[in-house]
User: Fold this.
Amino acid sequence: MAQTQQLGQQIGPRVGPFVAVDPVVDRMRALRSTWHPADGVAVFNRVYLTVTEEIGHAIEAGAFTDRRAAATLDVRFAERYLAAVDAAATGRPAPACWRPLFHYRRHPGVRPLQFALAGINAHIGHDLALAVVDACRILECAPADLEDEFDRVGDVLVLLEERIREELMPGPDLLEVADPLTHLLGCWSLDRARDGAWLAARSLWQLRRLPDLAEELTESIEQSVFRVVRILIKTQNQTRRG
Assistant:
């Protein structure tokens, strides 16, 4: 947790082209060098590092109208994931939606694609809404003021989802496998997850002066995402017989 808090302290006024996301990028690169490539959390970390680097380069290239808002949102988003990593590393409970990924991270029966999509679902379904609220508090604005930045970040995530499916989906040698995972993934949509996160962020912002209700909504979101992540992680292949 201390490392994540330090990252948050570093962003402050130092929001310029790409430099604002450097601390979280550096942290994820350090994790990549520490974890075994087959580790399920490492699989997600590689995916998410690519996303964060892409967004950083987009900020640097001027793709965002408000660079400070984009960088603040991106860093707060990343810090939610890194806080879950810190919690798991120190034996503290991570948010429920992250626990299946950490629990099964070394399970040989879980595919890299499952790890990647489980992490993305936990991060977008739960963390993104909270990151929007975090950014609004820092920037002293409402979610509507961050909608353009939110949409552009979402565009990068959609492109990355396509890349993940291309690189991690089962190869031709598994075409004759009756695979419930493939069916499940066909039903999952990053666009819907992103839309849900935006609605949740707006709702949480409206409830910011009613902390008990905001906490109840946050808990409901966390449990809902947890159920999806658990299904993504625990779905196994079933080879067709006969």
Notes: The chain has ten helices and no strands. Residues 112-139 form the longest helix (28 residues). The CA atoms of residues 7 and 136 lie 18 Å apart.
